[in-house]
Amino acid sequence: MLHSNRQDHQKKKHPPPPPNSSMENNKYINVDSGDEVARTEKRILWTQEEDVRLMSSWLHNSTDPSIGADRKNEQYWGDVVETYNNTTPSHRRRNAKQAKDRWHKINKWTDLFHSAWLKARRIYTSGHNDQMWIDKAHHFYVEDNKLLKLGHFVLMDVWYVVRNEPKWITYNNGLKEARKSKTSDNGNAGADTAYKSR
């Protein structure tokens, strides 16, 4: 009888999936058990905390002199995702393509906000503090990017990590210069492609 009660308890804990469901092939993962079963290929949305850790991983691999700057693109992003995954539970780990794609998105949004913040500092020089410039930057971010339909900027934690980082600022200034020269050479074609490089 004791054995039967244990089986009933386990069935309640993990009920079997309905017949012909996509769950039949997936294993249950107990996150707290320490099992290192890889997650399925289902889409997992990024959290703001994960965005911060991803940007921090990029910064670490971009500024650490012991790593070396002569790595190829694949090796570089492999190192970034390895750094990121070292602080990530196994069921939320990402591969290099996922990390690279997400990084380029959050970098673009964060750089656009940073540009809005710099604009606010240029326009409102006296009598303003940092919070006032940030408030104005939120307004400029929406107004200056209406065509992109970005909505409000929500990655403030990411921006606080990178806003004073010379490597990040230099990287994005280089992208802006590349876009300027590309748009002057080709009209407006490919204006957004500079964000897709390393």
Walk me through this protein's architecture.
17% of the residues are buried. The model is unreliable at 1-35 and 189-198 (pLDDT under 50). The protein is globular. With 198 residues, the protein is an all-alpha fold. It is built from 7 helices and no strands. It has one domain (2-196). Helix 2 (48-63) packs across helix 3 (73-85) and helix 3 (73-85) packs across helix 4. Helices cover 57% and strands 0% of the residues.
Envelope shape? globular
**From N to C, what is the helix and strand string?**
HHHHHHH
Total domain count: 1
Strand residue content? under 5%
What is the terminal-to-terminal distance? 62 Å
Helix proportion of residues, in percent?
A: 55-70%
Poorly predicted runs? 1-35, 189-198
CA-based gyration radius: 22 Å
Note the total helix count: 7
- Sheet with most strands: none
* Count of distinct strands: 0
In short:
The chain has 198 residues and is mostly helical. The chain has helices at 2-13, 48-63, 73-85, 96-123, 130-144, 156-162, 166-186. The termini are far apart.
List keywords for this structure.
single chain; 198 residues; mainly alpha; globular; disordered N terminus; disordered C terminus; SANT/Myb
Q: Mind sketching the topology for me?
A:
Layout: H1 2-13, H2 48-63, H3 73-85, H4 96-123, H5 130-144, H6 156-162, H7 166-186
Helix pairs in contact: 2-3, 2-4, 2-6, 3-4, 4-5
Domain Myb-like: 38-107
Region (Disordered): 1-28, 179-198
Protein name: Myb-like domain-containing protein
